[in-house]
Write a sequence for this structure.
């Protein structure tokens, strides 16, 4: 019975890696779409979001089978509970990548937009955080999980810089207001992707230590 349970735990890790890879691919596609103005990549990000939704249902069903198959020990229970929380964040990462793709469709060509260095840096940082958070769970790497959580300050700082740049753009050229709002929403979605990566990392901490840092807050 325990051997079967261990195999299902291994399957859970495998499925989480696959779901995480889909999230990373969705972010990568939408980043490239944003930078290049490539609408085909927008379609790819939207398609990946649907696959992520399907994976969420599959992993959720696997978690429930694990919980019902036998009485799990505390460590197993934490791991499966953390996985259930993580897939919710991964599903939202897919949603936000799709939301960015829908915005990119309406943006002007990249050469007609203002400097976007900070948004590109946000996108790269968020993608890296997602990758690291999934890797931390699979390898049970507490140090890596903490690095993800600490990286959130970088993304937040970049978002504030983007917001100020866009405020200045509107002040200088009111006709750019609509584009500036689209760019601000793009940056906000990248910030939220980073937030979800942090959530995943915090559940990794819980799976390993049994303590969630937000308990009691």
């Amino acid at each position: 019975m325990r051997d079967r349970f261990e195999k299902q735990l291994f399957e859970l890790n495998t499925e989480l890696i696959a779901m995480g890879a889909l999230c990373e691919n969705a972010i990568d596609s939408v980043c490239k779409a944003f930078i290049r103005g490539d609408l085909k990549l927008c379609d790819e990000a939207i398609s990946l979001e649907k696959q992520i939704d399907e994976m969420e249902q599959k992993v959720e069903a696997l978690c429930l089978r694990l919980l019902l198959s036998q009485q799990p020990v505390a460590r197993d229970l934490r791991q499966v509970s953390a996985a259930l929380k993580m897939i919710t964040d991964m599903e939202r990462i897919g949603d936000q990548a799709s939301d960015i793709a829908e915005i990119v469709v309406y943006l002007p060509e990249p050469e007609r937009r203002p400097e976007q260095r900070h948004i590109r840096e946000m996108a790269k940082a968020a993608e890296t955080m997602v990758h690291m958070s999934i890797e931390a769970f699979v390898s049970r790497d507490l140090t890596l999980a903490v690095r993800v959580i600490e990286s959130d300050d970088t993304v937040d700082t970049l978002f504030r810089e983007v917001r100020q740049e866009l405020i200045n753009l509107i002040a200088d050229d009111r006709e750019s207001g609509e584009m500036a709002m689209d760019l601000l929403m793009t940056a906000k979605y990248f910030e939220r992707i980073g937030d979800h990566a942090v959530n995943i990392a915090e559940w990794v901490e819980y799976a390993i230590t049994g303590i969630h840092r937000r308990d009691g807050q």
Remarks:
- Residues 3 and 136 are 24 Å apart (CA to CA).
- The radius of gyration is 19 Å.
- The mean pLDDT is 90.
- Residues 2-209 form a domain with the Methane Monooxygenase Hydroxylase; Chain G, domain 1 fold (CATH 1.20.58.220).
